[in-house]
Write a structure and sequence with these properties.
There is one protein chain. By secondary structure, this protein is mainly alpha-helical. It has one domain: Orthogonal Bundle (Tetracycline Repressor, domain 2), CATH 1.10.357.10. It contains ten helices and no strands.
């Protein structure tokens, strides 16, 4: 039952937002009493903590699977982006923004975990891209991987990138293209152009 509650809560939080969804909403949606939820989670904060960890683990496992396939490094970046967007429901309710605002400690813990996962994945991607001739040879991998993380998290700021002007999917696509164009060789640029044309 505990896992069912976490799954349903995660789905609702990502779709409707952490602030909007109440314990009553989750209980009603599951057809159980609120008391049953409180049996496993003493308060909403504990449930939010459990759901964010649950979603993080799913995304982490998925990213590891994608990276393990050792695809073309440019294609890999787009695959990771698509996978994350799919599992975050395209962030229609801005869950990261709400998490930061209403549950700052959970958000900070999650961001540290995300940074650790993304650093390994992005650095490996950069090394492979350099080795295969798609990325510039003398890149500062440590710097680029951190700037990439800063950008990915920074574009979630709705004060800088309001949803009505910057739809989430387009914003992610634009940022990824911006990141890749800054590090590619002519060979990499050709591959990026081919990949974008194939997707459109």
């Amino acid at each position: 039952m505990k896992e069912k509650i976490i799954k349903k809560a995660a789905e609702m939080f990502l779709t409707l937002g952490f602030k909007s969804v109440t314990m009553d909403d989750i209980a009603q949606k599951m057809g159980i009493s609120k008391k049953t939820i409180y049996k496993y989670f003493t308060n909403k904060t504990k449930l939010v903590e459990a759901t964010t960890l649950y979603v993080f683990n799913i995304i982490n496992d998925g990213i590891n699977c994608i990276c393990a396939q050792k695809k073309n490094p440019i294609e890999e970046l787009f695959d990771v982006k698509d996978f994350v967007m799919k599992h975050l429901k395209n962030e229609s309710s801005s869950p990261q923004f709400q998490l930061k605002k209403y549950y700052p400690e959970i958000h900070q813990t999650l961001q540290i975990k995300q940074f650790e996962v993304m650093q390994d994945c992005v650095k490996e991607n950069l090394r492979r891209g350099i080795k295969q001739g798609y990325f510039i040879e003398d890149l500062n991998i440590e710097f680029i991987s951190r700037i990439y993380f800063l950008g990915i998290t920074g574009i979630k700021d709705e004060q800088l990138f309001p949803l009505e002007k910057f739809p989430k999917k387009q914003l992610m696509d634009d940022y990824l293209a911006y990141h890749i164009r800054g590090i590619v060789t002519p060979k990499g640029m050709k591959k990026l152009t081919e990949f974008i044309q194939k997707q459109s």
